[in-house]
Amino acid sequence: MLNDIGQKIKCIRKENNLNQVQFAKSIGISQGNLSEIELGNSNPSAETLISIRTQYNVNLNWLLTGVTAEDGTIYEDEFERRLIEVFRNLDDYDKNEIIEIMQLKKRLRSNL
Predict the structure, then answer these.
(1) Are residues 50 and 97 in the same domain?
(2) Secondary structure string (H, E, C) spanning 3-54
């Protein structure tokens, strides 16, 4: 799973609307180093991982393994993790409503 770490870091950067220069500076590395990490050509150092965790409140277990849940659930990406996190805090009525919205969205997309 370490080969996915660059994609996860890129996702974190884009989620925060930062370019490579801005994100690299915020975590204390060069833009070139960040580029190599995002491309999967190198792995981040422990210091870089800790900086990402500190600056962007990222779960290191998820970043390294893709696992965040206690039950070992693996999420496809940061969007799925966020969706589940928010979804779990809704009441049953809102959960059903969200499911209906997602099903409608899927139907509309398949008709394009």
Answers:
(1) no
(2) HHHHHHHHHHHHHCCCCHHHHHHHHCCCHHHHHHHHCCCCCCCHHHHHHHHH
